[in-house]
Structures are given as structure tokens and as C-alpha cells.
Amino acid sequence: MNEPDGKTTTPAQEAFAARLGQRLRDSADQLDGHTRSRLNQARQAALQEIRPRRAWLGAPALAGLATAAVAIIAVSLWQPASQAPQPLVPAGIESADLELLMAEESLDMLEDLEFYTWLATAELDGGSAG
After folding, report:
1. Domain count of the chain?
2. Are 89 and 98 in contact (CB under 8 A)?
3. pLDDT tens digits for 113-127?
4. Domain range for residue 2?
């Protein structure tokens, strides 16, 4: 007979193991009921320790919250957006002014912003250059 570690057993070893097993069963049959009960309880406790615990089964509130969160996410993804957001335009700006501001030439103006600020200040001062 082959063992899991690759070793083979002899017929004498097999006979010894069979006799030993029979003696252990016989000695267990001779135990009184109270001792058997305590051994069974210890066995059940040991088996309970090696079983994987499922914490989420012990906490139904946590499972309920997780289910609610998944439902909210699913509904929010399922609902189509009402409409695309519109760009905000400040009050008092006409569409023609907005088009001028958005033109590429206005980007050049932004590069020389200090010059235009100086020019506006100079015009307010009466045209005197500082």
C-alpha cells in the first residue's frame, strides 16, 4: 500500500494498524455516557473552530446596507441623464460678444493683457504716458 508521502507499508504494518484501530474502537465502546458526551462536545467545538466563518451572515443589517447600496447604484446608472448641462453665460453678455471672446484672436489679446490694462489706465488718465 502506498502512503501519501510516497512510502510503502508492509503487510505486518497494515495488520498492526488494523489491530490498533480495533482496540481503539473497543475502548471507545466501553466508555460511559457522560464521558462520551463530553468527548462529542469537544469534537464538535474543535470542528466548529476549523470551519470558515461567514461574518456577513451574522450581521443581517450589514447585508441589508450592502444590498441597498447596490440597488441605489444600479438605479442611478440605469436612469438616463435628463439633459446635458448648459454652459453658464454671465448676465449682460450678448451672443455676439460671447462669440468675439471665444474667437482665437482673443487668445492673443490675453497674452498681452498687461499692455491692454496699461492702455486702459492711460486712457482714463487723459492720455498721458507714464
Report:
1. 2
2. yes
3. 777 778 778 877 765
4. 1-54
